[in-house]
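User: I'm curious whether this sequence folds into something compact or stays loose and floppy. Could you predict its structure so I can see for myself?
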Amino acid sequence: MEPSPKDPEVFNLLKRILFLHKRAFKENEKKANAHKKYITGTKEITRHLESSPNDIKLVVVAGDSGSEMCERFENIQLMCHQNGILFKKALTRRIISKIVGIPRQVSSIAILNYEGGDEEYEAVLKMTP
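Assistant: Here's the prediction. I'll summarize afterward.
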C-alpha cells in the first residue's frame, strides 16, 4: 500500500485524518459520528457540495477512475472551483479504499475537518497542481 512518488503528501494527510477519526471514535462514538472528519463517495460529496460547501476543505479523486466517472468528477471539480475548495486528483481507488478501510473501491473522498493534521494539509497545499 505504498503511495506513488507524486502523491505522498495526499497519502499522509488521508492516513492522519483517518487515524484522528478512529481515535476520536474510540473515545466517544456518538461525538465522533456527529463531527465527521471526512466523507466518501461521489454522490455523497456532490450532495454535500450542493447543501453546505463551506464545510469541505479538500476533495481527493482517484487518478485511476474510469471514463464513466469523468462527467461526475468534472461536475465536482467545477463546484469546488466555484466555492474555492482545493481539488486534487491523486492516488488510486484501491489505495484510498485501504486507507479508509472500506472493502469496495472508493473513487473520491472529501476532508471536512483537518484539525490535528495541519502539517500534512499544508504539505498538500504546497503541492504543484
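Summary: The chain has one domain: 8-126. The helical segments are 8-27, 29-34, 42-51, 70-83, 93-100, 118-126.
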